[in-house]
Amino acid sequence: MSDDVARFVADRLGHSPCDRRLFERAFTHGSVGPDSYERLEFLGDRVLGLAIAAALFERYPSEPEGKLSRRYNDLVARETCAEVGRELGLPPLIRLGKQAREDGANQSDNVVGDVVEAVIGAMFLEVGFQAASRFVVETWTPYLDGQGRAPKHPKSALQELAAARGCKNPDYEVVGRTGVHHAPRFEVRVSIPGIGEASADGSSKQEAETAAAAALLSKLQ
Length: 221
Prior knowledge:
Strand order of the largest sheet: 1-2-3
Number of strands: 3
Number of helices: 9
Distance between the termini: 51 Å
């Protein structure tokens, strides 16, 4: 394990790793080789989800499932994970292959968000769910505290607006893709016949669709 990663784990996670290679792997992008963070990211995604779901269930005892789901989706979104990763100081520590490094993959929401989840997965394997969950809740507290009313996802809000105006559901179309394989950018156009259309881009189709929906909502509201 590099000294920088070792210091990060000790200082930011408050943990002295037993398996140092586990955390080294959590910071290793697939462009370096097959021993990457992908399996840890798969595991950490589930730990993050359960920790956030439990925190919301306890924090909002009277809210129905629909509102809890909207809060949950906002908190575990790739953009939120990436923001958390940048606040923790992850990007400079991510190990990348030469081309990925030159392409700035360590600034990609997808990559930074994946590493956050991989780190959570590594913590789960070393210290168990309770400690990993405690880290998640403590790290996500500003986002939990920042949620007033349950946020409504832009795509849901746009669909409701279309229905309220007696129109068809919004139609999403990928109109462009740029960037390299490990850091693509998608451009999506959303349109509602008789109302309008808007375009936006993102690092995934879902992110681009969400941004396009938000852009069209902004035009219509």
